[in-house]
DNA sequence: GTCCTGACTTGATTCAATATGG
DNA sequence: CCATATTGAATCAAGTCAGGAC
């Protein structure tokens, strides 16, 4: 923001630890702002940062028991949603017909959150912060309705800047009732007006709380991410495949989730170079394949015309061809994989949205070493899950 | 209801470590 | 062996959400 951050002094810092613990000494000649013992919060030290006037905390590592416990609870709430999600979907679909505008807006917003995995979209300080939106703060200018687009009816186009000013741009066919409701919500409004003018994040979450204890908008993201991983793993994994293919299948499933959640990254600076190199390798391999084909044909001809008793030679050539073709296929697969992944960030979903027990169970079931999926710190972070997942775990 | 704030999670980027290849 | 590419961890800003004041 072009502003300078003030140095944090001991006099700014509040220490939070239990009374009977060893209270850390402030640096010589200094005092803490305060020492307190509040076991209703998890932070160890806190101060106020001078740019946005917001609280900053020293917190425990993700591998800590406390953080692990909280992570586990998060996924347990998402699993409870699995039990009631059909009922909730049936209800919001029914509410699309409600005579009450408020109810219809809520029903369509919830549909967005569920189907498109949008964030809830709290109000933000205008001017002070970047102009980004989520579901509840969507404006008319972010939505375009197309009655008919190449054989598809009722197509909705969303285009807005979300968290971290990452662009969300998506074109999806929606149900007729959703389409009609959106037309109604946009009627007689300016582009800058709120799409859901009768809705706030507080009222939305209040409604969700009534449907299920602990349910908030973000639980849908967790639920849909984890259930998508589980489902994709089921579809993409074949027991007889090689380890490499299985890991590739996992990454594909991971990517499906990242795409759903719109987790993007800047295209790596060296991406073009990397692809060119790979393309060269593919061309070289292609040439080898062609060459091998010629040799197979020659061996066949030899066998016929000269009646040579060397079928072994042909077999050899055929085997070589097959191997080269496999290598070419693998290179092509690698290229597709890289291309599809160039703008997609897999880490965020892996760390924050995918119940680690799904991955652990999958590894056990298909004999994939866990190190292929989780790095050392990730394994430490998910220690809680290793204690709780066997190969039969189902999200 | 609206506004405000505290406490927590989520997120892309940056930085550091490790792997790769000429 | 060194330079470069790739991977993994750390960072801290930007979100979510609940609760209290009015």
From TrEMBL:
It comes from the Eukaryota. It is an enzyme of class 5 (isomerase). Its EC number is 5.6.2.1. The active site is at 353 (o-(3'-phospho-dna)-tyrosine intermediate). It catalyses: ATP-independent breakage of single-stranded DNA, followed by passage and rejoining. PROSITE patterns: TOPO_IB_2 (PS52038). Residues 275-341 form a coiled coil. One of its GO terms (molecular function) is DNA binding. GO terms for biological process: DNA replication; DNA topological change. SUPFAM superfamilies: DNA breaking-rejoining enzymes, Eukaryotic DNA topoisomerase I, dispensable insert domain, Eukaryotic DNA topoisomerase I, N-terminal DNA-binding fragment. Residues 1-367 form the DNA topoisomerase I eukaryotic-type domain. One of its GO terms (cellular component) is chromosome. Keywords: Coiled coil, DNA-binding, Isomerase, Topoisomerase. SMART domains: TOPEUc. It holds the Pfam family Topoisom_I_N. Releases the supercoiling and torsional tension of DNA introduced during the DNA replication and transcription by transiently cleaving and rejoining one strand of the DNA duplex. Introduces a single-strand break via transesterification at the specific target site 5'-[CT]CCTTp site in duplex DNA. The scissile phosphodiester is attacked by the catalytic tyrosine of the enzyme, resulting in the formation of a DNA-(3'-phosphotyrosyl)-enzyme intermediate and the expulsion of a 5'-OH DNA strand. The free DNA strand then undergoes passage around the unbroken strand thus removing DNA supercoils. PANTHER family: DNA TOPOISOMERASE I, DNA TOPOISOMERASE I, MITOCHONDRIAL. Belongs to the type IB topoisomerase family. This is DNA topoisomerase I. It comes from Myodes glareolus. The lineage of its organism: Eukaryota, Metazoa, Chordata, Craniata, Vertebrata.
């Amino acid at each position: 923001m072009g502003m300078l951050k003030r140095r944090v002094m001991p006099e700014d810092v509040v220490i939070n630890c239990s009374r009977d613990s060893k209270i850390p000494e402030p640096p010589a000649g200094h005092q803490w702002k305060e020492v307190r013992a509040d076991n209703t919060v998890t932070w160890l030290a806190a101060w106020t940062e001078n740019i946005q006037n917001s609280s900053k905390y020293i917190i425990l590592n993700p591998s800590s028991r406390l953080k692990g416990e909280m992570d586990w609870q998060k996924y347990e709430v998402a699993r409870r949603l699995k039990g009631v999600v059909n009922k909730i979907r049936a209800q919001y679909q029914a509410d699309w017909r409600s005579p009450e505008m408020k109810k219809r807006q809520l029903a369509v917003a919830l549909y967005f959150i569920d189907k498109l995995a949008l964030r809830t979209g709290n109000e933000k300080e205008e001017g002070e912060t970047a102009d980004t939106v989520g579901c509840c703060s969507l404006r008319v200018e972010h939505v375009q309705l197309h009655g008919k687009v190449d054989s598809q009816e009722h197509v909705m186009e969303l285009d807005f800047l979300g968290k971290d000013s990452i662009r969300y741009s998506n074109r999806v066919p929606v149900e007729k009732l959703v389409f009609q409701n959106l037309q109604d919500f946009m009627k007689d409004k300016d582009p800058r007006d709120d799409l859901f003018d009768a809705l706030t994040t507080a009222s939305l979450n209040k409604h969700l709380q009534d449907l299920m204890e602990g349910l908030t908008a973000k639980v849908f993201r967790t639920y849909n991410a984890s259930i998508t991983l589980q489902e994709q793993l089921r579809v993409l994994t074949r027991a007889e495949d090689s380890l490499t293919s299985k890991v590739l299948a996992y990454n594909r499933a991971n990517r499906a989730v990242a795409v759903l959640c719109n987790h993007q990254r800047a295209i790596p600076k060296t991406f073009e170079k990397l692809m060119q190199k790979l393309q060269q390798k593919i061309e070289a391999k292609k040439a080898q394949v062609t060459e091998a084909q010629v040799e197979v044909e020659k061996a066949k001809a030899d066998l016929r015309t000269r009646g040579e008793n060397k079928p072994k030679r042909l077999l050899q050539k055929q085997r070589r061809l097959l191997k080269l073709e496999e290598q070419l296929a693998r290179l092509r697969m690698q290229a597709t994989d890289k291309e599809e992944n160039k703008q997609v960030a897999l880490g965020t979903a892996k760390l924050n949205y995918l119940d680690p027990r799904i991955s652990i169970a999958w590894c056990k079931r298909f004999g994939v070493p866990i190190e292929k999926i989780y790095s050392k710190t990730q394994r430490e972070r998910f220690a809680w899950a290793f204690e709780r997942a066997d190969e039969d775990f189902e999200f």
